[in-house]
């Protein structure tokens, strides 16, 4: 069942697609820490600060092909990560990325949508272990906070995100409008990204630099993916 190999990657890629982002501190108070900077420069600083934090948490909801999915991840400084994603139609699944392997465990509806009732019965309460794609970590901050697409932005009026003052940057491309919220106090981390258009969604970021513990599941709870194709 080759589709399982990319489940975690798909979840992370979906989030990266929605936010569109594939060293410094502010003085606080009412002073604008980005005074005189272009919107592109502010985004570049946010990209670097967020990536340099090493660890973070993200939570959001996105819509693709008419289906809304919730997603939540915690990423460790090592690049290991854990999270959940799901929707009423596809069911819900947990994901782990540890070292060179990824693990996925879904509810009955999730596995039924991937391989039918027999697959759901085989994998009930179990984790599927698959090799990570290539040598790159699935939850790579270089991908999540890449600034290669953060160009031709415009700065709008400042706003607040969970009580934190944020600079608001927007980008329009075709029928898509993406809005980035960048912290104006402390380090200029991305706080939230909202995309409006065909692939609408919102992703919020928090707990930058905080410890995230990710461990592989016990071997007794892991299914050899080769059994999926043999049906044993």
UniProtKB/TrEMBL annotation:
From which domain of life does this come? Answer: Bacteria
Q: What segment(s) does the record annotate as region Disordered?
A: 45-69
User: Which PROSITE patterns does the entry mention?
Assistant: PROKAR_LIPOPROTEIN (PS51257)
Q: Know the name of this protein?
A: Lipoprotein
* Organism of provenance: Streptomyces anatolicus
